[in-house]
Design a protein that fits this description.
Layout (H helix, E strand, L loop, with lengths): L6 E2 L10 H11 L6 E9 L2 E10 L3 E9 L11 E8 L6 E6 H20 L6 E5 L3 H13 L5 E5 L3 H11 L5 E3 L3 H6 L3 E4 L18 E4 L12 H6 L1 E4 L10 H8 L8 E3 L1 H5 L12 E4 L4 H13 L2
Parallel strand pairs: 1-6, 7-8, 7-10, 8-9, 10-11, 11-14, 12-13, 12-14
Antiparallel strand pairs: 2-3, 3-4, 4-5, 5-6
Helix pairs in contact: 1-2, 1-9, 2-3, 2-9
Length: 309
């Protein structure tokens, strides 16, 4: 690294990070005061500049800024580019710049597997992942590490080629397979994780049996959903943050606005669970965790990464 402000990339922390460590760091940080959080959007036609910021008392502040450029695919470039700037809590001085892809990869799956560690049955043996993109890739690794008893990881995707490619890439190290019948595979699952960009539900409550844990990741706009009303009405619902999910993400905003569920049906967020709110009460409970991925989680992950340098 240069003698100036450190610029941290994946290569700087290769083989130092683990999914257990990220989940532990996020959990420990939820015993601190609740954060201040704010998002800002700037639009230029179909292009977007998004900044997500958080300040956690005693930890510091961070702002992750990304661009989403609609025409980059035609240029052979990634749609999203970005970086995160982390600031010292007391002096406000910049500590480091961290690649946004590094933060997002570890934050996203780390948040989900922490939710599963708190809410899923510890004897889970069968994981279904709906989606076959970059998030699904990280979920395979993260769930396998936190649930070493997993015997089957089934990948379900509308993009058959992507599912095959992901299974072929991972099968040497993990018990992955393609879900040939999504409904039947979901019925047999102990944990279901969804990582799609769908605006219509891809997971139906009638498919989900007693004792299952559902991890909803993909929806991140007010228009997006992955679970149907029937699933929400039969599950014990938890979220990662009251500040980022109910009023901003369609997964819960739409059914709340339509009166399908009430705010009282959201039993808690990670701060509530850290304070002692009960999660899974019975082995037969269906638990549901909505991963909203707020800026405070980026900061928690960044703090861990900087501690490893």
């Amino acid at each position: 690294m240069s003698t100036g402000l450190p610029h941290v990339t994946a290569a700087d922390v290769a083989h130092r990070l683990s999914w257990n460590a990220v989940a532990d760091a996020i959990w420990a940080a939820h015993h601190r005061p609740r954060p201040g959080i704010a998002d800002a959007f700037v639009h230029r036609g179909d292009d977007v500049l998004l900044s997500r910021a958080a300040w956690i008392d005693g930890m510091g502040a961070g702002a992750k800024t990304v661009t989403a450029i609609a025409g980059n695919a035609a240029r052979g470039l990634p749609t999203i580019h970005g970086a995160m700037l982390v600031f010292d809590d007391e002096t406000g001085r910049p500590r480091a710049v961290i690649d946004s892809d590094l933060i997002t990869r570890w934050k996203t799956a780390g948040d989900s597997v922490l939710g599963a560690r708190l809410l899923a049955r510890p004897d889970a043996r069968h994981l279904v992942i709906i989606g076959a993109g970059a998030v699904a890739d990280s979920l395979i690794e993260a769930y396998a590490e936190l649930f070493p008893g997993l015997e089957r990881i089934a990948i379900a995707s509308r993009r058959a080629e992507s599912a095959r490619a992901l299974v072929n890439e991972k099968k040497a190290m993990y018990p992955v397979e393609i879900a040939k019948d999504i409904q039947q595979t979901v019925r047999e699952a102990d944990i279901i994780a969804t990582a799609t960009t769908s605006r219509e539900p891809v997971l139906r409550g009638e498919w989900v049996g007693p004792g299952t844990h559902v991890d909803l990741i993909g929806a991140f706009t007010p228009e997006m959903r992955e679970a149907d009303d029937a699933l929400l009405k039969k599950a014990r619902i938890f979220i990662d943050s009251h500040a980022t999910v109910p009023d901003h993400i369609g997964e819960l905003k739409i059914p709340l606005d339509q009166g399908v569920i009430a705010r009282s049906d959201i039993l808690g967020d990670l701060y509530d669970l850290a304070a002692g709110t009960p999660g899974r009460v019975s082995p037969s409970d269906i638990t549901l965790f909505k991963n909203g991925g707020g800026a405070h989680l980026d900061l928690m992950t960044a703090d861990l990464i900087l501690s490893l340098l």
